[in-house]
């Protein structure tokens, strides 16, 4: 009997110690998503669970907080079921915001949530309502380096500065061209890493496309990467705009597509397209490997200049202050609205 009583007491002590240990276990929260898109003034759903509830052994009150420590919502977790926090995205949120779970001022989420916040009404840039007589030529580089040096020489000849939208693959294959482009005073911008259709790409994969391209640009020419992004094929939507802006890049489309990529377009047909009704704030799309592009540029650059239009990189078109982009893709600066 004595032995049985000792064993019983020992077992009770073990159980007490086990429960005490469980109660001392710090909670660990896991988010269902680590990347989310949030639009200002709209609801954002953040799903999270107390992953080790059975180890903790008791209900836990936890806060969802932003990177500045502001409590967005509080909930009591009394199981390991997923809870959904519904929050309204503040108007002040623009770009990348980080959310985490906190208990008693201690961070308890295994991995943060990155929210890519944007104004859904702010569209992609097609034209700029500039007060200065200037416009932009852009050159997309994705499939080879044909004509690149010739184009750079033509641009030098006329004192024109342009924006080159390069893929990460192109930057990695031709770092000497990027170095030459930068040395001659032109702008280098992001055109994705491998030129996929971005609206058909998963959110995390789309973000990696932009980040990898920026890394390739930095590897070639240093600096902090690109501030502008042009989606391959002009394929974009509000989610891709939010991804791009969260990484500090504005989406740039074009006012006029030269169609220099189209085999059916002759030299003169391209010239007519890119000179008809051209005006200040226009952005013209060309490609570095277009068959007629060098000859066309040699003809149209002096025409643009004869109209009193300076040829500048796209970022210079956007340097007149804070702006919005309306549904037609027109950039309107705050002072002009």
- If you consult CATH, what is the topology of the largest domain? TIM Barrel
Mean pLDDT figure: 93
Q: Provide the CATH top-level class of the largest domain.
A: Alpha Beta
Count helical runs: 10
Overall SS class:
alpha/beta
Provide the gyration radius in Å: 28 Å
Count of domain modules: 2
Total strands: 20
CATH architecture of the largest domain: Alpha-Beta Barrel
Low-confidence stretches: 6-23
- So what's the overall shape? elongated
- End-to-end gap: 92 Å
Order of helices and strands: HEEEHEEEEEEEEHEHHEHEHEEHEHEHEE
Lay out the secondary structure.
Blueprint lengths: L1 H22 L5 E3 L3 E5 L3 E8 L2 H4 L3 E7 L4 E7 L5 E6 L6 E9 L2 E2 L5 E6 L8 E2 L5 E8 L6 H11 L4 E4 L1 H6 L1 H9 L3 E4 L12 H19 L6 E2 L8 H9 L3 E2 L4 E2 L9 H9 L7 E5 L5 H14 L3 E2 L2 H4 L5 E3 L4 E4 L4
Parallel strand pairs: 2-9, 10-20, 11-12, 11-17, 11-18, 12-13, 14-15, 16-17
Antiparallel strand pairs: 1-3, 3-6, 4-5, 4-7, 7-8, 7-9, 19-20
Helix pairs in contact: 3-9, 5-6, 6-7, 8-9
Walk me through the structure.
The chain is α/β, with parallel strands linked by helices and 337 residues long. It has 2 domains: 25-118, Immunoglobulins (Immunoglobulin-like, Sandwich), CATH 2.60.40.10; 127-336, Glycoside hydrolase/deacetylase (TIM Barrel), CATH 3.20.20. It has 10 helices and 20 strands. It has helices at 2-23, 53-56, 148-158, 168-173, 175-183, 203-221, 238-246, 267-275, 293-306, 314-317; strands spanning 29-31, 35-39, 43-50, 60-66, 71-77, 83-88, 95-103, 106-107, 113-118, 127-128, 134-141, 163-166, 187-190, 228-229, 250-251, 256-257, 283-287, 310-311, 323-325, 330-333. The strands form 5 sheets. Strands 2, 4, 5, 7, 8 and 9 form a 6-stranded mixed sheet that branches. The model is unreliable at 6-23 (pLDDT under 50).
């Amino acid at each position: 009997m004595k032995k049985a009583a000792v064993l019983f007491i020992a077992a009770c002590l073990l159980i007490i110690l086990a429960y005490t240990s469980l109660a001392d276990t710090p909670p660990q929260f896991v988010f269902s998503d680590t990347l989310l898109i949030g639009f200002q003034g709209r609801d954002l759903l953040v799903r999270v669970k107390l992953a080790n509830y059975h180890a903790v052994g008791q209900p836990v009150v936890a806060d969802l907080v932003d990177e500045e420590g502001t409590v967005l919502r509080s909930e009591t977790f009394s199981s390991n079921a997923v809870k959904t926090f519904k929050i309204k995205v503040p108007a002040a949120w623009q770009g990348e915001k980080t959310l985490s779970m906190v208990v008693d001022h201690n961070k308890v989420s295994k991995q943060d949530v990155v929210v890519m916040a944007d104004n859904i009404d702010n569209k992609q840039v097609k034209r700029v309502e500039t007060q200065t007589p200037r416009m932009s030529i852009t050159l997309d580089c994705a499939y080879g380096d044909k004509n690149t040096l010739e184009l750079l020489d033509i641009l030098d000849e006329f004192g024109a500065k342009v924006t080159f939208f390069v893929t990460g693959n192109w930057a990695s294959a031709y770092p000497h061209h990027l170095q030459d482009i930068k040395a001659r005073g032109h702008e280098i911008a992001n055109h994705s890493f491998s030129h996929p259709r971005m609206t058909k790409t998963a959110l995390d994969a789309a973000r990696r496309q932009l980040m990898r391209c920026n890394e390739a640009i930095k590897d070639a020419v240093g600096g902090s990467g690109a501030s502008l992004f042009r989606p391959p094929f002009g394929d974009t939507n509000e989610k891709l705009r939010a991804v791009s802006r969260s990484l500090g890049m504005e989406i740039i489309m074009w006012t006029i597509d030269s169609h220099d990529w189209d085999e059916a377009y002759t030299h003169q047909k391209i010239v007519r397209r890119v000179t008809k009704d051209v005006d200040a704030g226009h952005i013209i799309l060309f490609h570095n490997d277009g068959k007629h592009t060098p000859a066309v540029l040699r003809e149209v650059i002096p025409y643009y200049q004869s109209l009193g239009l300076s040829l500048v990189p796209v970022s210079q078109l956007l340097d007149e202050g804070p702006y919005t982009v309306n549904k037609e893709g027109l950039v309107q600066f705050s002072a002009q609205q």
